[in-house]
Every structure is written in structure tokens, then in C-alpha cells.
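Problem: given the chain below (277 residues), write out its structure.
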Amino acid sequence: MDNDININKPDILWHYNDDMEYGQWYFECQPDIDYSKFYDYYIDRYFQLTKKYGILVPYKNSDNEILRSIQDNENKNIFGITSIYYYNVDKNRYAIFPSWLFIKENDHINLKFVYDIANLNNLPKSNLQSPVKLQGTSQSTKTKLPYTSIVLNTNVFFKTFFYSKHLYTKNNNLDYSGFIGKEIDNSDMVYLNTTRFNSFLRDLKRLNKICGSIFKYECFPDDYTTENGILVNNEIIFYEDVYDILPEEHKYKPFEEIQIELDNTNYKKWLEKNKNN
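Solution.
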């Protein structure tokens, strides 16, 4: 699509740090819970959340294609949700974690479908330079139970960040007189992007709580991330807090078009409605 930005070198927009996780929000399995009974409900609600907030939107052509990509999950384990972000083409395996982000370009703010594509045969998964990633495993190991986690290795959602674009001369040599290390004021974008991330994380926590997952939070010490999301002016602000006051052209419209109820009462109603299907 015309709005795509295939970010092969994401540092044109933000700083990526493979050695540091600004934040990681975990949803861990409890071994005594049968997660298969939540599977269809969880998958449906997860897809709707990604669309509603534009965060971690699966790069598939249709919902049916998304569902086919997880049909090999025989045990109906909700922690296999990460498989929707991986592709097998010929003998190569690719990963892609797209999000809709408002990007300021030449003083104009535009909504872009931003992603990086990584061939996992050629580089470690950790080097996938997407704005935000979903990691995890549906299998237990010696040290970990099945889990999913939202991982933030970029500062694209922060109020300020360092612009680290490498400028090149005509002879293809690095030009160190450019903008390397320049601090960028991202304060306008945090109201358009970071607030959506916070609402997405909050609702994903609610969804996982319904299913009985344990929530954990880890971060590299910084001034921006908390267990409830990313700070905007030293507080957690959600998208619904600012949506009505945003200019129409800067609103992410699916937010108001997609309505999702997330509570145990709603789940029980859904279960009753679908028990004979």
C-alpha cells in the first residue's frame, strides 16, 4: 500500500538498541489453567485490539489468512499468538511486526504503516528493528513457562529521542557533520502514538487477566516506561483521554469504529452464546 514504510534502516526515524530493552511486558502461563477454553475468545479479541489501536497489526491480507497461520497450534495455546508475525517463503523464515504510527515529515504529520522485515535465516530475531515486537513461546522450557511479551527496543514512543541518521557523501563516506546524536522533540507525536500504545497494553492486560495469565514487567532503568505503559509528561495517558481533542486529521479512526468489551461478565456471555457453535 502507498502508506507503507518498509524500514530497512529504522534509525532514520528513531534509535534502535539491540542491547537494551526500554520495557518488556510479560504475560505468563499458569500451569494449572486449561487455556484451550479461552483460545477462540482470546484470538478474536487480540486481533480486534491490534486493529483498534494500530499497534502490532498482523501483516496479513485477511482475517482468514491470519487464522490459517496459527492452525498448526494443535493444543490451542493462546501463547502461540506470536506465530501470526512469522512467514515461511521458500526456504526462508521472515518476521514482521507492523504498527500504524503518526510520523512528522517536513512539518507535516502523516499516518504510516511502519515495519521492518527480517530474514531470520540471516540474522538473530533480536535484530529485528521494529517499533515494538511481540515475543514468546507456546512451549515450556527448563527455565520458562509459555509466555508472550511486548518488547520495546526503540525510543519512538518517547517524548524526546536522539536522531541518529547516518548521512553519506557523494563518495559514500559517512558525513559526521550531519544530525548524528541530535535530540529530537517528539512531544507532539506522543499524544498520537504513545497514548494508543498505553491503551493497547492496558486492554491486553485485561484480556490476559480474563484468561488467567500472570503479568510481569521488566525494564532497563529509564525515565519513560512503567508497568502500566510509557509516560507522557510524567504520567500515563491513554488514547481515550486525548482522542476527542485531537484534530480530525490526526485521529486514528479505528479507535472509535471498533468496540471491544473486556471483562469476565462479557467473556461468560460470549461463552454462552458460542457453546453450541
